[in-house]
């Protein structure tokens, strides 16, 4: 009898791209852990020692990170179930996992998970936690184990860069809600089981290629494999290439370059972790912040405040359409542009904002936005512990890219003069909202 052992992380991978799941879990090709993941592992170890034994966090950077969120955790106790393993069977689909901490001592059992992030901007919203695969599977496992009808899912986020900060995101999950959300996971688990019964390689999993999942990875590790399969390359050759990837390991942050999947325009470099301080530091006092706890009723999010030029501003952009996409002469102008973020002006005194050329270049020449966007993309990916900005969950990759690009412009890489971007480049297209927002004027080529 064939069974399959599933986990929330497997489900998330399969939900993004079923063939990618096959490459990882059938062909067993994995990427090396990132520096961010290594930091998260150290943080989890500190949390485990504190909750189970009451061990004082070390006087180093990891300890400081953990202390910032310690107020969101239960008191150390032998009653806590730390690194609690679970396994429940749903027919031939078996769900397994390890929960960082289960606190069964209160009126409502708490399912707790430590999360490390470079910015609280990326902390999950309660509305997302209500439907999160990990939260649903954890809640179902604990409800069944303890025979209860509701649990609290509590994700504690620790900031790994800059000033130590934390945030607790908490929702109450009831059985009716959990069982309803689990039905989608059950269908997915059955689908994965069926695939496991019929094939041993992701190459045999039919998918439309390219697809939104490919673009989400910005050209994932297997983009060239999928492209070669579509072009009809022999299966034996493809299997040989997969075996080589498995034997050599998939190099972290090395993305496959293939135009069909809108690949990144650069290879991201992994920065080494900073050396941790060992000099003893006093324990930091942290004040708990207000905690937002919601029930299974979804709460609408407040729309974010719009940044940029205020409505009615006199400094509106000039947009010029030109028929000759190869050679144009732009109109001169003296407009200035205010960034509208914490009072910082984008156009400095005595300077003019840049003119953006889209799909065209003026006779006087222009600088490509590519290098600056590559830098913004790298920062966005590093800040979110992913190998490429398009891997940021919930489709937030393009927004993160735009945010980092504007920060670079405002803080260190002020740009002026003529700059050009191409609608054939996915990186440029993802950043286009920010480029158009900051440009003093825009000139578009037409074909």
Q: What does this molecule look like?
A:
The protein has 447 residues and is an alpha/beta fold. It folds into 3 domains: 4-191, Lambda Exonuclease, Chain A (Alpha-Beta Complex), CATH 3.90.320; 208-261, no CATH class; 318-445, no CATH class. The chain is built from 13 helices and 12 strands. A hairpin with a 5-residue loop joins strand 3 and strand 4. The strands form 2 sheets. Strands 1, 2, 3, 4, 5, 6 and 7 form a 7-stranded mixed sheet that branches. A 5-stranded parallel sheet has the order 8-12-9-11-10, covered by helices on one side. Helix content is 34%, strand content 17%.
Please describe the topology of this protein.
Blueprint: E1 4-6, H1 8-16, H2 18-25, H3 35-53, H4 61-67, E2 81-90, E3 93-103, E4 109-117, H5 126-129, H6 133-146, E5 150-159, E6 166-174, H7 175-198, H8 212-216, H9 223-230, H10 235-248, E7 292-294, E8 318-322, E9 355-358, E10 367-368, H11 370-383, H12 397-411, E11 418-421, H13 426-438, E12 441-445
Parallel strand pairs: 1-3, 4-5, 6-7, 8-12, 9-11, 9-12, 10-11
Antiparallel strand pairs: 2-3, 3-4, 5-6
Give a brief rundown of this model.
The chain has 447 residues and is of the alpha/beta class. It has helices spanning 8-16, 18-25, 35-53, 61-67, 126-129, 133-146, 175-198, 212-216, 223-230, 235-248, 370-383, 397-411, 426-438; strands at residues 4-6, 81-90, 93-103, 109-117, 150-159, 166-174, 292-294, 318-322, 355-358, 367-368, 418-421, 441-445.
């Amino acid at each position: 009898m064939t069974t399959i052992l599933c986990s929330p992380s497997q489900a998330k991978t399969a939900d993004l791209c079923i063939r990618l799941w096959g490459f990882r879990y059938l062909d067993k090709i994995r990427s090396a852990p990132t520096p961010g993941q290594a930091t998260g592992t150290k943080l989890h170890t500190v949390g485990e020692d504190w909750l189970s034994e009451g061990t004082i966090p070390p006087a180093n950077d990891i300890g400081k990170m953990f202390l910032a969120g310690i107020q969101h955790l239960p008191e150390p106790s032998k009653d806590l179930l730390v690194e609690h393993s679970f396994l429940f069977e749903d027919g031939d689909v078996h769900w397994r996992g390890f929960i960082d901490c289960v606190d069964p001592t209160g009126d409502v059992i708490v399912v707790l998970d430590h999360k490390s992030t470079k910015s609280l901007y990326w902390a999950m919203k309660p509305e997302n936690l209500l439907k999160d695969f990990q939260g649903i599977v954890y809640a179902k496992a604990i409800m069944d184990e303890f025979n209860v009808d509701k649990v609290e899912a509590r994700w504690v986020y620790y900031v790994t860069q800059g000033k130590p900060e934390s945030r607790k995101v908490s929702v109450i999950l009831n059985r009716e809600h959990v069982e309803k959300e689990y039905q989608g996971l059950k269908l997915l688990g059955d689908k994965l089981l069926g695939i496991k019964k019929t094939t041993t390689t992701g190459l045999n999993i039919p998918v439309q290629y390219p697809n939104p999942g490919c673009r989400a990875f910005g050209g994932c590790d297997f983009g060239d494999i999928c492209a070669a399969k579509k072009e009809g390359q022999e299966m034996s050759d493809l299997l040989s290439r997969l075996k080589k990837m498995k034997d050599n390991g998939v190099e972290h942050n090395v993305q496959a370059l293939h135009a069909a999947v809108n690949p990144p325009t650069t290879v991201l470099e992994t920065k080494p972790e900073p050396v941790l301080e060992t000099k003893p530091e006093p324990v930091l006092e942290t004040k708990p912040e207000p905690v937002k706890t919601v029930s299974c009723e979804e709460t609408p999010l407040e729309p974010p405040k719009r940044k940029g030029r205020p409505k009615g501003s006199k400094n509106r952009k000039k947009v010029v359409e030109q028929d000759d996409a190869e050679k144009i002469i732009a109109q001169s102008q003296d407009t200035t542009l205010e960034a509208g973020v914490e009072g910082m002006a984008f156009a400095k005194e005595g300077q003019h904002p840049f003119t953006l050329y889209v799909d065209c270049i003026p006779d006087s020449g222009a600088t490509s936005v590519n290098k600056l966007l590559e830098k913004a993309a790298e920062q966005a990916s590093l800040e979110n512990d992913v190998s490429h900005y398009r891997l940021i969950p919930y489709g937030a990759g393009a927004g993160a890219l735009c945010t980092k690009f504007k920060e670079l412009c405002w803080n260190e890489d002020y740009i002026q003069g003529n700059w050009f971007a191409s609608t054939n480049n996915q990186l440029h297209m993802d950043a286009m909202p920010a480029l158009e927002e900051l440009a003093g004027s825009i000139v578009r080529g037409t074909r």
